[in-house]
Amino acid sequence: MKKLVLIKGAGDLATAVGHKLFRSGFQVVMTDINVPTCIRRTVSFANCIFEEEWEVEGVKAKRALTHLAALDILEEGVIPVIPDPEGVINEKLSFDVVIDAILAKKNLGTYKMKEALVIGLGPGFTAGEDVDVVIETNRGHNLGRIILKGRAEADTGIPGNIVGFSRDRLLKSPVDGVIKNIKKIGDRVIKGDIVATVNGCPVTAAIDGILRGLIYEGIEVKAGLKIGDIDPRIEPSYITTISDKGRCIAGGVLEAILMWENEIGNEELRMQS
């Protein structure tokens, strides 16, 4: 019997985890909010909440509205993604592993369970207290590291550096309102180009590059919300493939699950589970 895994969140990093676990033989169910605000939609299974179906590097996902529909989708060999901000699915199905991949920088309601291994990604969780395992998500030497006691590194608030660019890569909403996209993911942009508007206010590119991510058109956004991401490397293949960061984090998750499943490695993990 394949282990059943719940992943809370279906953005690009959560998708990297789901993709690796699915390809490693696990059954994967993912959830997200009713109107996802993921940026890298081309590599986010959350996008199937808008599009009904989505595929990332050969792995397919499909929107499900109930736990019964999710079970049917699993039988098809596809990952079900459920709009479920309240986590109702966790009460309907019995999961072997629960992974909080929301990346909210705080715990929004994930806690240890007697019958399942519980993993938290990034800051906001304490391994050995509210979750069994924490996976480091901060770029650097410890990225993807398994933490069996304690917390991940604190959120720096500084976006990852790509060939010398950090904050300038990001596009943020200037006001509250509804977003209208002028450009699309994969488009080349030049500094000063209008990428989108929010209630008529332009959102312009601060650097040259390729538009790697852009929030779904027509949704309501708040001032200051990240709505887009420019990659200065201008490599089109990066738009449709899982990032190095995502693969590293996913590898840490897989290792933690196998430690728990095979009862090898660290005594603390065996005791916690």
Automatic annotation (TrEMBL):
Q: Which domain of life is it from?
A: Bacteria
The UniProt entry, under InterPro entries, shows: Se-dep_Mo_hydrolase_YqeB
Q: What is this protein called?
A: EF2563 family selenium-dependent molybdenum hydroxylase system protein
Organism in which the protein naturally occurs: Alkaliphilus serpentinus
